[in-house]
Design brief:
The protein contains 5 helices and 5 strands. The protein has about 170 residues and is α/β, with parallel strands linked by helices. A 5-stranded parallel beta sheet has the order 2-1-4-3-5. The chain is globular and about 50 Å long.
């Protein structure tokens, strides 16, 4: 299975870009032994449309162009998404997609105007990092960290320590 992170906007040089690259590189290395062929990032240009709804729809079409329903699953990070899933539960879901011979897992992060309704409707799973609004650069870092954390859970790597029964 190929992992593809699609994110609206371009990360400028700086700490967010460095961290995102670090987690992506770690995921690539670890993923090879877990049946994952790649962990790529596609930066989708921000729309220049005047109205927010038009920007969202244009950016959404670009996201969906990377997530054909016939060969991919779509996990979106959206403020309306579930924020109660543990990393272990996310890892279980991703493992089930991988084991079902899914060609591509697309992880989508929308732009400043959010995800288009068509993207939310197409999503196989919608998650949120809580109720707070976060900068898109940090969301990208968090999404890539969760990809890496998922792989460490699946590999039995000690990076993820989880809950300890007291």
């Amino acid at each position: 299975m190929r992992l593809l992170v699609t994110a609206v906007g371009r990360l400028k040089p700086g700490p967010e870009r460095d961290l995102a690259s670090r987690y992506r590189d770690r995921a690539v290395q670890l993923g090879r032994g877990l049946g994952l062929t790649a962990c790529d990032v596609v930066e989708i240009p921000e729309s220049r449309a005047r109205r927010p709804v038009d920007r969202s729809v244009e950016e959404g079409a670009a996201i969906l162009s990377h997530a054909p329903a016939s060969s991919s699953v779509l996990l979106v990070y959206d403020e309306r998404g579930r924020s109660d899933w543990t990393s272990e539960r996310i890892a279980e879901r991703i493992a089930s997609w991988r084991d079902a011979a899914t060609a591509t897992l697309v992880v989508a992060i929308g732009g400043a105007d959010g995800l288009a309704p068509a993207v939310r409707a197409r999503a196989d799973l919608s998650l949120a990092f809580g109720a707070a609004t976060l900068p898109h650069g940090l969301v990208r870092v968090l999404a890539l960290e969760q990809v890496y954390r998922t792989l460490t859970i699946l590999a039995g790597h000690p990076y993820h320590r989880g809950d300890i029964d007291a």
